[in-house]
Every structure is written in structure tokens, then in C-alpha cells.
Amino acid sequence: SQSLQGCDEILAIFAEVFRDWNAEIVGADHYPQQAVITLTGYQGGYLRSSRWLEAPVFHEDALDAVCDFSVDYFHAYVADNPGVLCLHAAAVRLGDGLMVFPAFYKSGKSLFCAHLAWLGVELFTDDALPLTPNDNMGVAMGVCPRLRVPLPENVDEGFRTFVSDNIAKVNQQYCYLK
Question: Which residue has the higher pLDDT, 30 or 94?
Fold first, then answer.
């Protein structure tokens, strides 16, 4: 479970970025002891803590905090599902399968897949791809694709329009697409 404490304003961002999640608002006394990831309003920003961090991480910007939260969400998913292999990869649906693009951090996976989506290809994930044990099925994590902004100067104007028309949330660093 995850816990949001003292940061109600972040709920609207969660609703846009983690669109297909089955989330429930409960009282602060309901989950805090059991929360695997905690995001707390703190001194004009947001403090995230989890078992995967040596020390809490602070973000002034709400969208940056939500983006950072997703890293621990992937860790928690793998921890709760023994045998799952999670690739740092983007993937698109082709026929009955997935075309997977494993790559390093900041290598352009999201931009590439968003461009493919603009061309009509169905995006499956832009960052993390868990594979189930035994049957090697990909799991869509329900997180909207995230582009770094500004977009590169050499992208097509039609693609820029596509991005502009499909913004879910944006700040100085990131743009989540619907």
C-alpha cells in the first residue's frame, strides 16, 4: 500500500498519471504503519520514503514527486510478485505480442514510443515492463507515458501538436501524456 499524508493537492495528479488504478482515500490512521511508500507534504514540498531508499527524497514540485513515486511503485510491484522480471524498457503492441525496446535511463524510450503512438501504434509502456514468470506475459503498469521537456528541436511539427493536444500534466521537467 501507499500513503499520501498532508498532500491532498497531489491526488488530482495521481488521478491523471495513474489513470487506471483502483485507488481509495482512507483516513490517515488506516494505513500509515503498513504503507510501503509514503509521500508526505513537508516544508513547501513533498517527502517520499520507502524501504528502497536510504534516506527520504524531497521534491518542491508536485509532479516531480509523483514521477519519483513511480520508481518505488515499480519496486513494490516486483517485491509483491515473486518471480517477476522487470525490464527497464518501452514496449508497443504489435499483433498478438509486444515489441520491446530495452534501454538505459534518459535514452529516449518515451519519446520514441510517443512518436510511434502518434503514428498509430498502440503504446504498452514507456519505462518499465514486468514479465510474469512461467508465461512471460508483459504487464502494463497503468502509468501514463512521460516525456522530458522541452522536446528536442528536431521533432516533427505534427508530433509537437500531438504532444500538445494530449498533455495530461506538465511542469518544467516532464510532460505526461493522456
Answer: 94
